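Quick entry between incubations.
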Amino acid sequence: MKKLLGITLGIVTSIGGFLDVGSIATSAQAGAAFGYSLLWAVLLGTICVIFLVEMSGRFSIVSGHTIVDAIRKRFGFAGFIVPFAATLLVNLLVLASELGGICVALQLLTGIRFQLWALPVGLAVWLLLWFATFDVVEDGTALLGLVTLCFLVAIFTLGAQPRELAAGFVPRLPSEEHAHYLFIAVSIIGATIAPYLFLFYSSGAIEDKWDKSFIAPNRFIATFGMSFGSIISMAVIVVAALALKPEGIRVEEYEQAALMLVPAFGRWGFYLFVASLAIACFGAALELSLASAYSVSQAFGWNWGENLKPRQAARFSMAYTLFIALAALIVLSGLNPMKLTLFSMAITAVILPLTALPFLVLMNDARYMREHVNSHFSNIVVLLIVLLSAILAVVAIPLEIIGSK
Amino acid sequence: MSRVIELQRYIGKPVRDADGKDLGHLHEVRAHREGAELLVHEFVVGGAGLFERFSVAQLAFEVGFIFGIGRVQGFVVPWDCMEFPEDGKPRCTRRASELKRFSAERPEGK
Amino acid sequence: MNKSVDLVRDVLDTQVLDREQRPLGKVDGIGLELREGAQPRVAYLEVDGVTAWRRLGERVARWAQKLARCWERDGHPFRFTWSQVRDFGIDIEIEVDGERSAPFDLEHWLREKVVGRIPGGR
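Done. Structure below.
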C-alpha cells in the first residue's frame, strides 16, 4: 500500500515537474510557427528520457552509486572532467533561463522589468533550498506544478481535431523556414532530455534510499510520469497552434506566448499562463541548483544531501549558492530570456552525448549493474536518439544564428 | 634501496618495450593482499579507457564494445619487468614477443 | 574474501569513508614503493584535491594549490595506508576519524567563514 502511494506520488510529481522554461518556450514557438508539425519532437525526446530516467533509477538502486560518482570511478578523474565541466556550464545557462522565466512572469504581472527581479528571485530560490528538506522541495513544487494541467484543459475547450493532431507525430519538413524548424526541433529535444533530469533522479533515488524492491516501481514512475508529463508539453504546442498561429502571432517574446490561454479561459488565461510559467520555472530552478551541487559534491567525494542542514554540508550548500548567484547575474545582464532559453536547449542537445554515452557504458558494466545490465533494445534506442539529436543540433545552431542576422 | 612513485602519474601513459616498440597504455595495476600489505604482481598494458584524458575516439570505442564491436588486446607485464622513470613514461624491460598477451571482447573498466 | 585488488579499477577514484561513515573524498593518488628485488608495495593512498587536479597537468595543479592555500590547515595531503582499510567494496572505509583531517579543511573553513554567519545555517 505504501509502495502504491509512493508510486502515485512519484508519477504525480513527475507530471507536475515536467514543464519548465525550456518546454514552455520551445513548445510555444513550435505551435505558433509550425502548428502541430513538431509534436514528433516531443515524442522522440520523451521516449529517450523515459529510458534514461528508468536507467538512472535502476543504476542507483543496483549499484548503490550515483551516476556522477560512478562516471568518475569508471573513467578516472581526467576522463570524466570534460563531460562534467560541459554539463555544469550548460546547467548554469539553463538555470539562468529558468530564473529568467520567473522574472518574466513577474514582469508580465507587475510591469516591472525582468532584470530587476533577478536578485529577489534568486534569493527566493536560495532561501527555499537553504531552509527546506528534499521532500518539501521535490514534492511541494511538483504538486503546485499541476497548475500546468490548464493547458490540457485548454485543448478540449478550443476543440482540437484528433486527426490533425496525429499528423503532427510524423516528422515532415515544412514548405519554408527549414533551418528554423530544425532548430526548434532540436531545442524541443534538448528541453525534454535535459541531463540534469536523470542525474538529479539518480541522486534522489539515493537520498530516498531506494532498494531492490523499487526496481519495478521505478519503471512505473519513469514511464508514466514522463509520459503524462510530456502530454502537457504537447498540449502547449497544440494550444499555441490553435490560439496563436491563426492570428499570425509569432512567439519572439514571452509576452506573445502569454496570450495563448486567453481564447480558452478569457482574462484568467493570462494569469494561468503567468502562474504556470512562474511555478514550473521555480520548480526547475530548485532542481537544477540541487543537481549541480550534487554533481560537484559527488565528483569530489564530499558529503552531500538536501536533507542535511547547510552547516553539516557546507561545501554542498555553498555550491548551489554560488550557482544561483551566477545564474542571477546572467539574468541581471539583460540577455533576452527567450533567446537564452532556446539556445540553452539547443546546446543541451549538443552536449547530451558527453553525459549520456558514458552513462550508457556504465549501464552495460556488469560490475555495477550485476544481472540488471541494459537490454540491447534500450542501448539502441538511447544511442540513436542521442546521436541523432547531437548531429541535428550541430547543423541547426549555426543555421539559426545565420538566419536570425 | 627504494623510492616511492605517484602511480596515478603513470596510469594511461604509453608504455614502450625493450626495443622501443609501443605496447599500448598502462591500463591496470594488479595487486594482491598479503597480511596488511598490498603487493603488486603484474601490470596490464593496452586495452581501453578514458583515464588519461577525455577522448571522443576512446568514448566511441567503449560504446562500440557495448554492441560487441571491437576487441581489447594487450600485454601482461610482470612486476619485475616494468620501470618508472622520472619523465612519467613507463618502460618495459622485456620485448613484446616475450610477454604474455591477452584479448577480450570488452574492457574490464578503466 | 577475494585477495586480488585491481588498483586502477577498484581503488583509484573510489569514495573513501571514515570510521563514522563520513565521506572524506576520493582516492586521488596512490603511492607505490618500488623496491630492489621485491614486489612493489602500496605505500599509501592519498585523498587530496590538488593531487586530483595534477592528473590534468602541472599548470592546473599550481592554480589548484594557490586556491587551496586559503583554507589549508597544515598543507599536508591526507594519506592512509592499506592496513587502515576496514572495508573495501563500493566504497573504501577506513579506521580513521576524519573530522579533523585535511579533506575537511574546506568544509570547516566554509562553516566558520560563511555558513555559520548566515542564519538558518545551523
